[in-house]
Fold each of these.
Amino acid sequence: MADEALSSLEKAAVLLLSLGEDSAAEVMKFLGPKEVHKIGSAMAEMRKVSKSQVEQVMDNFLVAAGNETSIGMGANDYVRKVLVSALGEDKAGNLVDRILMGSSVTGLEQLKWMDSRSIAEIIRLEHPQIIAIVLAYLDSDQSAEVLAQFPDRVREDVIMRVAALDGIQPAALHELNMIMEKQFSGSNNVKSSALGGVKCAADILNFVDGSVEEQVLNHIKETDEDMGQQIQDLMFVFENLKELDNRGYQTLLREISTDSLILALKGSDEEIKEKFIGNMSKRAAETLREDLEAKGAVKLSEVEAAQKEILGIARRLGESGEISLGGKGEELVG
């Protein structure tokens, strides 16, 4: 890796790689599945990190640690491989499960650690209302991946049920949790949770492919126009990035690839293009303009995929407080 600025994710990966197995494992106990997967992937992709980069990360960490009361970072496959290599399969097994899963994870919570295809297989034969509750319980991006595994008819039915949910009674949530625990080990402790609603449905649709998003929304509007409009109004779309301030654009630019940006801007209006370009160096801005002209026509599906990717990064930065998303986006990530 060249001696260049590291993203927040890369800094976390460098720090964990520098801590050693025991200390890194202690830190990882405080992480959720999404953080584990992201930082684990970043750690796996690390190749060369200069001494000056490591020193800068450690200096920044010491400053941050002096101002904070707690810190959380994590990894997954990396931890498993390291512990198995150091302790052997038998000795490492329980330790890996304790670190990555935790001793008090409920049946529903364990779904968050699974891939989307496996989750879909588990709930495929359940009633659509059960599927809707499970999707409302998972993180929105994971729910979108699970939703993609179902036929169109099921997707539309389930999203409408998610939007219509107005929380779930503790007893019903407990019963659903017990169903999941028939297949997984874990605690049966469960708390009441406000699940579902039009905002939850909008969050899930934010992460699905553009063609699927349009199809599901159109179906919902045909069945319940008011509900469909409410969902659409709450969705965070690429145009919402107009609300970013200059610092927000500069932070976002450090996290996205040039290739993704070029594709995303091919399908955006001039205002957003100029806001991105206006927060680049003169040389980078000129290069981007040239690349946009040279790119020529691109598939709409490629543009939508790139915009979804950038929106996902923007939402993550908004959730962590690194940028402030105004308008509808602020309501979604607050």
Amino acid sequence: MLNRQTTGSVVCPSCGRLVGVQVERCPHCGRSNPGLWGYTRFFQSLGDDFGFVRLIIGACVVLYVLTLLVNPSGIGMGSLFSMLSPSMEGLFLFGASGAVPVFGYDRWWTVLSASWLHGGLIHILFNMLWVRQLAPATSRIFGAGRMVIIYLVAGAAGFLLSSFAGAYLGFLPSFLRGANLTIGASAAIFGLLGSLVLYGRRGGSSAVGQQAWMWAIFLGVFGFIMPGIDNFAHLGGFVGGYAAAHWLDPRRPERVEHLMAAVIGLGLSLLAVLFSVLRGFALLG
């Protein structure tokens, strides 16, 4: 499967038309390097998302298990929503964001790491179901690389807004306050919804945009009803995803540079988790 193709034609990942494997630019849609260095068939065998969705879900599951194992005595076994919840120390260690880590301990990189962490079994289950639902659909519209960029930008924007609100807007009612400690993929999920809304408004399928609006409103209302929901992270994620989608423009084909940026972004966000652990051990020790 990893054999490199050097002759013949391949299907352009952006427009779906046949092009020469070694052409520098697709003559139909203008995508640069549509042959993906001769490995187009391998990438396409991974699906529309190039395997990024499985990577995101797998990394979240692994890190959830690690946050449980780092402090087994602190695992919560209370209500349904707090079942198998990692300790606060474990979440802080692996890169939880919020007013306390960002402004209290200058752990600014946690706006990248917090999206990979979850606070309980139900929390990670529902978030990963939403990722599995929305990320492939976003990939089909924007391309796999741009989907990842939107996901990462939205997560960082959500946790940045929540951390700021938690530090400086404490006078607001409890359901409108930011968070002292916050985690989860929901900010990035709201970003995917924001990108689909933008797609509907920029000449794409209006049905897709309307469905995304309905889901965003439903989840937003749910956030105001349920205690402990980080509504500022959701708002920041939605706005960040919408803005990123506007900048990336779904009417234009995805470029190889987007795929490279996605890989770099994933690497940096996972490095933020590692850096959090290294700095956290020194701080907690």
Amino acid sequence: MSKPAGMSDVEWGMRCDLAAAFRLSVRFGFNEGLGNHFSLMMPGYDDRFLVNARGLLFQEITANNLLVVDFKGNVISGGREVRSVTYHIHAPVHAANPAAKCAIHLHPPHITALAMIEGGRLSMAHHNNLLVNHRVAYDDEATGPATNLEEGYRLARALGDATTLVMANHGVMTVGPTVHDAFHELCVVEKTVGYQLFAASTGLPLRRQPDHLRWTHHKGPWSEVHDGRQFLDAWRRILDREEPDYVS
């Protein structure tokens, strides 16, 4: 099945990008079982977003089986159920930050391990830290699962104007104006934390870089200075050959 009749090319492209990000998260070992969720604001609406349905593995997600959900938690289209925790987190984040068109929540191993360490923070030990550290916020309150909308608004406040939120005892959320912005930034942060944890496992002190080496303090869209679109396009070429059903 390709693009449904009547769907705009813009919406179809967004759906395909989002489906690709789900499939790639499996390949990269970022997701956890049936949990974790990505959302993307619908074009032409300020209160509706695309999101994965409850009960589907990331391997099963396609461009066409994504749900459309409104800010009240109603499933507008998609024919499946939305998890309450998904709505409780994503609706407030989108409502509180209109620039956060895409919101990706995962439990990738390295960032999640950092979130489990008391006072866990990104170091300034790798070149990537010069690009990402100023874009990361930390939520140390660890108030438990999102059982209501207030928890989502609390997370939105913790995120503030950052683009990545390390969620204590939990995982991570990364936001951006597009799927490729949010997903590529998440991949870079996860890789960078992995370097840090591997180096720290030696028991030797990390070598800190001086602040004046920071390449940029850019806090705008990731792809304005990095190759987010090219990164997702390259991986979509792999998916086109190996998992072409993601665009079904």
Amino acid sequence: MNLGIIVIFAVLASPAPSPSPAAPPANDPCGGSTTNMLATLNRPTIGFSACAVKPRQSVWELGYNNVLQSDGSRAAVYPQGFIRFGVAPKIEVDAIGPLYEVQQAQGAVQRGFLDAGVGAKYEFFQDESSVAAVDLLYSLPTGAPAFTAGAPIATLNLDYGRSLSPVSGFATTIGVQSSYSQDSNGRSARFTSLVPSVAFTTQANPRTQFYAEAFGQTRVRPDGGTLFGIDGGIQYMLLPCLELDAELGQTATDLARAHYFGFGFGLRF
């Protein structure tokens, strides 16, 4: 279940907040009065951006993700909804969902909604080249029986991003997650894990950004197991308020391996 959660939260991930040559003013890596999309978007990485959406603005992150497991099973998730609202300077609130999954395994197909939830971000530090924030995400067991975690899941993230040059940046997220799933024997229980990630970004031009990322999870079920993954992709600003992206990634746990691809967009209102 937690491998699914990790991949689903590829919707929730984030390029480093490196200042874009097209993003005024230069002393605010998150964009001044207007949200800098390449710095602020969470998708398509696993980690989270340290930049909050600017007040009275909203950013909608939507996409499609397809995961192929080593046993031949496949899962597709869409529209990967993550909707963000700037409610005050350096503060945003979030809606997690809708998330719909189609799973194919051993000739059978299951469909249903995943758990929905809410979130918030507080950007507590910023200077000309770096940003730091905390995120809180909380999902409720609202999904279909085949896809719900069965209990609330809470994640607290510490996010940090730093510009390394006018066109490149570094970002990391250290998450602590209280989760709930089945162990290897089918017994459900709550457990706590760390969910770290680190990403590097570089811009080919003011509209085009590439990224590479490594991420992990210290426990993926109550009786242990670990996860490690890598991914990379491209983001392109089609319009000042519209970003398009594509990604490829691989994950491995003590029990299974998987690779995935995805694509989507971010839209600022």
